[in-house]
Write a structure and sequence with these properties.
By secondary structure, this protein is α+β, with helices and mostly antiparallel strands. It has 2 domains: 3-108, 3-Layer(aba) Sandwich (Aminopeptidase); 136-260, Aminopeptidase (3-Layer(aba) Sandwich), CATH 3.40.630. The chain is 25% helix and 36% strand. The protein is built from 8 helices and 12 strands. The chain has helices spanning 13-23, 28-40, 96-103, 121-126, 167-178, 217-222, 224-233, 278-281; strands spanning 3-7, 51-56, 59-73, 76-88, 110-113, 130-139, 152-156, 182-188, 191-202, 206-213, 238-243, 252-264. A 12-stranded mixed β-sheet has the order 1-2-3-4-5-12-6-11-10-9-8-7, with helices on both faces. Helix 1 (13-23) crosses helix 2 (28-40). It is elongated. The protein starts with a strand and ends with a helix.
């Protein structure tokens, strides 16, 4: 074997499409669209544009995607990288750790693992990841009590210029909407509260959304009724929210241990922010 781990180039994407299609039980079109979206993104300083691949004499036998971006945490830019779509062909599984070590080499980055299966979670934890979201809150915000105060105005994704959001946050919401997410902004008492939701189907039957962005879960509580009724008009009454407990002010039920989220690095992620990750770009929620 002539094994090597190297960065993925844009020219590798057709080969990686074949590899990922063999490794994951989703249609080939899923990877074609997802990798095209990754190719359209700007690179993140200090991180590979796509991730890494394992080759044997220049033949691709493994891949790990890294979806990197900067987020503002307490007003300070922080580097995050979503470890996604890790697959190695069966004959090379014993070398999979080579990909992992290379992918997580940047000590300044906080790495996210957003969807490990139950049998993989102990492995993820052994690798040094810790849970920052221990479960999910299944919410029905349309039934939230209306709060006393000024009315709430809603700006859709095509109207964000008039919402009062700054340019960076407006561009973030517009990008998530281009991925197929539901993005809008509520303005209450002059304060703009942005939200992004990923459409989902739960149990192959129930139309729902996954909260993919808000600045703080308290913002959702503040306008839960308005948000819930807008989503209800779109046929999405159920909202899934990564959380560590029930969320005050929103009807629903907390499920501990369901779809936990993991992180490893110097900065703790904010609950409710899954933008520029596999969740919105690839639709893996």
């Amino acid at each position: 074997m002539k094994l090597r781990v190297r960065e993925i180039d844009e020219a590798d994407l057709p080969v990686l499409t074949d590899l990922l299609y063999r490794g994951f039980p989703v249609p080939r079109k899923f990877w074609e669209v997802g990798l095209a979206r990754l190719a359209a993104r700007s690179g993140t300083v200090g991180m590979p544009r796509f991730g890494y691949m394992l080759t044997d004499d220049d033949r691709a036998v493994g891949v790990i995607l890294l979806i990197s971006s900067f987020r503002r945490i307490d007003g300070v830019p922080a580097l995050f990288a979503n470890v996604s779509s890790w697959y190695v062909e069966p004959a090379y599984r014993r070398h999979a750790v080579l990909l992992y070590k290379r992918a997580l080499a940047n000590k300044e980055a906080t790495y996210l693992n957003l969807g490990p299966a139950a049998n993989v979670q102990p492995i993820v934890e052994a690798m040094g990841f810790t849970r920052y979201a221990a479960g999910q809150f299944a919410a029905l915000p349309a039934f939230a009590r209306s709060q006393v105060g000024s009315p709430v105005r809603v700006y859709g994704s095509a109207e964000l210029a008039g919402s009062g959001l700054d340019v960076d946050e407006r561009c973030l919401l517009e990008a998530q909407a281009a991925y197929g997410c539901i993005a809008f902004c509520c303005v209450k008492q002059g304060r703009a509260l942005p939200f992004v939701f990923l459409p989902r189907i739960v149990k192959r039957l129930i139309p729902a959304v996954q909260l993919a962005y808000c600045r703080d879960l308290a913002d959702l509580s503040a306008v839960a009724g308005t948000v819930g009724r807008r989503l209800l008009r779109l046929g999405r009454p159920l909202v899934l929210i990564d959380a560590n407990a029930a969320i005050p002010g929103i009807p629903g039920r907390y499920f501990a241990g369901v779809n936990p989220k993991y992180c490893k690095g110097p900065v703790r992620p904010i609950l409710g922010d899954l933008t520029e990750t596999e969740v919105t770009i690839l639709g893996m929620a």
